[in-house]
Amino acid sequence: MHAEPFHTDRLDAVVLRPEHAPEMAEVLADPALHTFIGGSPATPQALRTRYERLVAGSPDPAVIWCNWVLRLRAEHPEDSRLIGTVQATVTPGAAEAEIAWVIGTPWQGHGYATEAARALVTRLTTRRPPVRTVVAHIHPAHHASAAVARAAGLRPTDEHHDGETRWRLTR
Asked: HSE (CB half, 13 Å, CA atoms) of 63?
């Protein structure tokens, strides 16, 4: 498995490249995005460095990193823009993937995270060989992310890690 572009009704999931860093630094600039995940907004150069590491792939050959930026389609292509990311850390031997998503503050509340997460889960669970278990880690107070996970078919478990609840979908 490797990251390949995919599409939803309103979004193009484009395979992450370091060149996305300047635009994504703007998308991720709101400190409120870091309320539940910690840290602070990254500079374009720091984000580029991070993206270079992600594109290089996991140092563990048993793990595959798949990362996409989400481009909101517009009536005029020049008006389309990046609005967030989705990612999957896939362990094929375990038929498991851990997923995550983030949507920039100006685009929250429009269902983009749900649309992208649903498409990602479908992509992972219908590929050959399929991922059988999809996991997300969500802070208990992050109700918007919990709603996205639920809409994508995941359910909360009694498991917790670093203060986050483990959500799971098993097929």
From this structure: 11
In a domain, 46, yes or no: yes
Q: 117 near 152, Cβ under 8 Å?
A: yes
Cβ-based burial of 111 (10 A; exposed 0-12, middle 13-18, buried ≥19): middle
pTM beyond 0.70, yes or no: yes
- In a domain, residue 1? The reply is no
Domain count of the fold of the chain? 1
User: Block means of pLDDT (10 residues each) for the chain, length 171 residues?
Assistant: 92 98 97 91 97 97 97 88 98 95 97 98 93 97 97 98 96 91
CATH label of the domain that carries residue 135: 3.40.630.30
